[in-house]
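quick one, 376 residues, struct below
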Amino acid sequence: MSTLWLLGGLCATWLTWWWLRGEDLARFDLGHPTPRPMTSTEEQRSATLARINGFIRATNSGSVSLKRVSRLREVMDSMGEGAQLTSRFEPVSDGDIRGEWVLAPNADPDKRLLYIHGGGFFAGSPKSHRLLTDALAVNTGMSVFALDYRLLPEANQKAAIDDARHGLAWLAKNAPDRSSSVASHLVVAGDSAGGNLTLSCLQWARDESSVNVDAGIAFCPSTDITMSSPSFRYNLESDLILGKSLRPVLMIPSFLRLLVFWLINRRRPSHPAFSPVMGDLSNLPPTLLQASTTEMLLDDSARYYHKACASGSIAEFELYPDMVHVWHLFSAEISEGRDAIISVVQFLERVGVLTPSITTADVSAEIPRHHGVNQG
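---
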């Protein structure tokens, strides 16, 4: 009898683990595009590395705690201090919608971009990402709205998803001058955890809303909360930003990690709202993904790209060599950050959101490009 109970318990555990982890995505491990040539100098890379090491020292207290989370938020919010920014920043508080408009002098009020910041769902804010949102606003000429969504541990991850969806629906109908007007073009973009929310929003907009999104942009996105991508292991040592913080998490048996997630969020981690790569990726708007060869989330982007292509959606995947996770935040110091923003502009021109300009055409001729493209 005890043997039967043991076998029953093992079967129940295996079935629960299988249900929690979701689809096996190994068939989409189909390789990566050729990385773009490195354009930064050794001096630029050294300066960026020094800044990152200072960031890591300032936030590493050795254990996960509310004090550490608070410190992480403070340090991230200080990242753009002292930088010369071109845009003006206008705070917004409209019911459940919180954030700020990022408006360059040439901002088109009818072309709008929702930006969803990263920070592991624990940290980050519109302020922490002003260097990036300013660069997007200036280079695209779109009216950028940086969303301030609810964070862990004060709220669960479902709250962040709800805030992102509400923010996208709100932006589709609200202009920077506070008038109610429908956007002529709507783009959603984000990095890391914000990239996860971005890709989740694309599926929601297609399936459950009347919002028409013209394009999606995901910088180093987390697409699979189950953390099953191979690069979580083989890039553990090379990822300076995520490696140290995620190492203890990866040491926990996957069954326990997935079970804790389900208990907290009351949804399995493989649900497409949390792990967009697990969802139906057909009939999505054109999507650009950018990732680094040395980051742990590399294969999250690769798997999403290959599955989107196989599903008939238009997707592009750009790979940058030996960059830190979300190197875009360091575009003031490292040329690959600026290259990535220029590539975003070119992508939006290709998909018809922006009108091609002589300026970007001239610049693009000087910057080699290589990425995967699926034309459906």
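The CA atoms of residues 111 and 185 lie 5 Å apart.
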